[in-house]
Amino acid sequence: MMSRSYTNLLDLAEGNFPVMSQPREKNRLTRVMTVPGVISEPDDDQDNSVSSDVPSSVNQDRIIIVANQLPVIAKRRPDNKGWNFSWDDYSLLLQLKDGLPEEMEILYVGSLRVDVDPNEQDEVSQHLLDKFKCVPAFLPPEIFTKFYHGFCKQHVWPLFHYMLPLSANHGGVNLKLLAMQQMLKQHPKWQGKAVLVQITNPARGTGKDLENTHDELKASCKRINEAFGQPGYEPIVFIDRPVSLGERVAYYTIAECVVVTAVRDGMNLTPYEYVACWQGVSESESSSESNGPKKSMLVVSEFIGCSPSLSGAIRVNPWNIEATAEAMNEAISMVDAEKQLRHEKHYRYVSSHDVAFWSRSFFQDMERTCKDHFRRRCWGIGLSFGFRVVALDPNFRKLSIDHMESVYLKSKNRAILLDYDGTVMPQTSHNKAPSAEVISIINTLSGDTKNTVFVVSGRGKESLDKWFSPCKKLGIAAEHGYFMRWSSDDKWEVCGQSSEFGWKEIAEPVMKLYTEATDGSSIETKESALVWHHRDADPSFGSSQAKEMLDHLESVLANEPVTVKRGQYIIEVKPQGLSKGVVAEKIFTSMAGSGRQADFVLCVGDDRSDEEMFEIISSAISSGILSSNTSVFACTVGQKPSKAKYYLDDPAEVVNMLQALAEASDPGSLTEYESDISL
Ligand SMILES: O=P(O)(O)OC[C@H]1O[C@H](O[C@H]2O[C@H](CO)[C@@H](O)[C@H](O)[C@H]2O)[C@H](O)[C@@H](O)[C@@H]1O
């Protein structure tokens, strides 16, 4: 069986698809004949080669969503002549658009759930494009089966979930049955009362392995029911037929608890659906006296995707049958007030993280990633395993110390903002205290009355205070600005916004979990923040643990007033609203407010947190806190993508550059310490 499908996605991306108002002939889509095992050439005369030029329509707001199935329902007309199409309101693809900008044009590419005769395919394609902005791929049934049940289910899914191509879910269910058996044994009070309704979707694949697992499940159910059943009572109800949404909702709304013990999953929506049902049912019955409390209890495997996001859930390692049995007992024994509190947590997450949220978040990530894509130049840097390709702005260049020094000399009100670790202090240095040379330079710079000099660091105030005690005029912003002090004579100001630290009780256990599993890692507790360090761990394991922990923390802290950031070998959780950018803004504002608007800004840092300082500079110019005539030297340490325009290679170059400025500074205002050093 042959099929004619539109193939050229790049054409679509460029906007080379028919416009509805064009005459019919021009609207014709380019197609290929699809025959199993044969890759055919397009049947059109036109040249389909892909141009390497930047697409002319690249700035148009169009998004192409490619999926297995289009979000449309196709039904044969009653007279059997052609098709009727309607939107599939339950399709996630359709809901995705709620998170995208309204003016965004959305084009769907995917297959239909029905087999369309090749003679009808042109007409159907045209209709779907005109009316639904859908581009169908007509896959002959045998190709579709190989693609979906073979390639997707047997190769891609197991590959992405580190599984052998067996049925994981039937992986995930026997453990649950064993846990139920254990609970009934350990807590006989539940015998005759507790029922586990196991809804198992019929396996999408076939084969001996699946049959064996299925038989094993049935045998477990039989064994448990025989051991604990009574007349009129069976502890396990095993449903292995397709269950409609309505029936599933009915089960959810009477369930005291939902247990998900999968050892791997993709996007398991069961816990979310259950939580939404409890909220919905209670709300719809709110006028009735019989309305019960909104409560949802979850026992979920720590290995599944939704586990970190539902902070009210009891998490278990499903391989630990005893612990899962205990968790199930705890869940159903819990008092209603506690169940309600947990439900509130679950619902807050579920209601704020809907499909629109995820599509918006994904779209924003994509926008951020692609912004300036065509302006940037790519460089290969590093060697061997350290080799990577980075995209840099063409204007990114090495800071010319001579040029900066000449501007420095001409300026009258200078703001100098210096990060500490990785900027004036090499990251690899064991002794973290600044050298006498650095102290001397910073003392000279801050002693010049034309200068406002700040060390802006993530470090705690005690160390910074001690290390820089000789620099009386130096300003210090510690813990990313949670503490700020304008000179050693001034008191520490505490950033007013952040006095709520209940989140530490959520973040710390997660960090401890990763610390136990990652040799060489440790937790640093600061007054306003928690930091997980992995510099001394195995480099690649530490870094992959850090990535996983970042996701984990972001999920469990989604409702807390904090941000989770990555730094040099660290993951840091700190209050929202605290950033080095805010510190920079405060300094510029204060200078402008006292009639000394900065005409020279030097801002140096190496890390992600320093990017926030660089970023604020342009908005400070547009808001007038800095002038458009201000000479700005935003400089990152190391050649890497940055918001800074300049770079220096390492802390040694930074110190040389600062030394040059110190030498060009007003010597009249040397402090006692500086005079001693000079002598
Ligand atoms: O803002 P900075 O001055 O760059 O400080 C950021 C973090 O500095 C400290 O961590 C760094 O130094 C550690 C060694 O002392 C090193 O192991 C780690 O990799 C560096 O990131 C500090 O411990 C953190 O709290 C600061 O946020």
Overview of this structure, please?
By secondary structure, the protein is of the alpha/beta class. The protein is 39% helix and 18% strand. It is built from 20 helices and 27 strands. Strands 15-27-26-25-16-17-18-19-20 form a nine-stranded mixed β-sheet, sandwiched between helices. Strands 21-22-24-23 form a four-stranded antiparallel β-sheet, with helices on one face. β17 (451-456), α14 and β18 (475-478) form a beta-alpha-beta unit. The ligand O=P(O)(O)OC[C@H]1O[C@H](O[C@H]2O[C@H](CO)[C@@H](O)[C@H](O)[C@H]2O)[C@H](O)[C@@H](O)[C@@H]1O is lined by residues 419-422, 432, 457-459, 524, 526, 531, 533, 535, 567-570, 572, 607, 609. In the C-terminal section; belongs to the trehalose phosphatase family. In the N-terminal section; belongs to the glycosyltransferase 20 family. It holds the Pfam family Glyco_transf_20. This is Trehalose-phosphatase.
State the low-pLDDT regions, or none: 18-27, 36-58, 286-290, 671-679
User: For the CA atoms, what is the radius of gyration?
Assistant: 32 Å
Number of strands: 27
Strand order of the largest sheet: 15-27-26-25-16-17-18-19-20
Strand content: 15-25%
Helix percentage range: 25-40%
Structural class: alpha/beta
Distance between the termini: 93 Å
Quaternary organisation: single chain
Helical segment count: 20
Describe the sheet with the most strands: 9 strands, mixed
Average pLDDT rating: 85
Principal-axes geometry comes out as globular
Hetero groups in this structure are: ligand L263DTV3
Family: In the C-terminal section; belongs to the trehalose phosphatase family. In the N-terminal section; belongs to the glycosyltransferase 20 family.
Pfam families: Glyco_transf_20, Trehalose_PPase
Protein name: Trehalose-phosphatase
InterPro entries: Glyco_trans_20, HAD-like_sf, HAD-SF_hydro_IIB, HAD_sf, Trehalose_PPase
